[in-house]
Amino acid sequence: MSINRVLLLTAVALTALAFAISASASAAEWTHEGKSFKKHVEIGISGVETVKSLGAELECEFHTTITTEGGSTAQITKFEITGETCVGSGIFGACPVILTKVTHLPWKIDIQGNDLTITGVEIYKTYAPGCLVESTETTTGKMTITLNEAGKLNSGNFHYQPQTDINGSGEYATEVSGPYQVAEPNAGTYGIG
Question: CA dihedral defined by 150, 176, 143, 137, rounded to 10 degrees?
Answer without folding.
Answer: 160
